[in-house]
Amino acid sequence: MGYKVAVVGATGNVGREMLAVLAEREFPIDEIAAVASSRSVGSECEFGDTGKMLKVKNIEHFDFSGWDMALFSAGSSVSKEYAPKAAAAGCVVIDNSSLYRMDPDVPLIVPEVNPEAISGYTKRNIIANPNCSTAQMVVALKPLHDAATIKRVVVSTYQSVSGAGKGAMDELFEQSRAIFVGDPVEPRQLTKQIAFNVIPHIDVFLDDGSTKEEWKMVVETKKIMDPKIKMSATCVRVPVFVGHSEAINIEFEKELSAEAAQEILREAPGIMLYDKREDGGYITPIECVGDGATYISRVREDPTVENGLNLWCVSDNLRKGAALNAVQIAELLGRNHLQKG
Question: Under CATH, which number does the domain 3-130+322-336 receive?
């Protein structure tokens, strides 16, 4: 027996990916609904490669009563208005926005890292999906933390434009084409030219000089893994369409060699270790697109600190950073909490 599942924000980048992942992983579904704003009503969404087309339903009139789960990926404003309504109707919300992530009554879940925390969903009937850059990082950090206890993390990200939505992807394409034909380039959605450039600015600036994206990585990692971990992040938008990359420096309480870390990562859930010390012996973002794994390369010891390691982490941000993680949460929820006979 399957579940009744609604995907809210079904016409967006992540919403379409959620539908694709649900189909690919053969999630047990009795009924599936594509839900979006009124401007998308009348359009259709493809349910993965099943050949089934879903007519988009208007969220303003959608009744969540009788639905088991709703995967939200329509932004914080939509989640603020409709997630509590869905939850009150008995539908468990898995929310991809940042709105509920730091709510103490809402579990923030990465299934490979803290599956036991999902039991807290009953307080509000809402489960939060972490930030895309956080999700892949904690998958990499958790098995190492279990082995040697992480004291401090310094991460620099190289985040693709898809993390900022379809408009940013269009902007990279249009700017690249404009440069080649000699047309003027005007930033619209992003703060500066993104084509052939990098922008050290994602989300709004905070009073201490960090950006909200950087703050999210810090506080979400503490909530998901361990509040004692000290962390510093610098988040950078790069001219890549899909796939986030991270250079991560880790300081441990106990000694952990690069070889031991490689062995741990090789066996860890959700991770693919590809680490050859030769030309091309590492994974780049273009190679991870469409894959659900978090790829780790360039594992090496850091001689500047005691018990330090460096590594390179790459993942498809639309998948593990959003859609796949949400579906994995739904699978965990169905397997352990909403079983149907």
Answer: 3.40.50.720
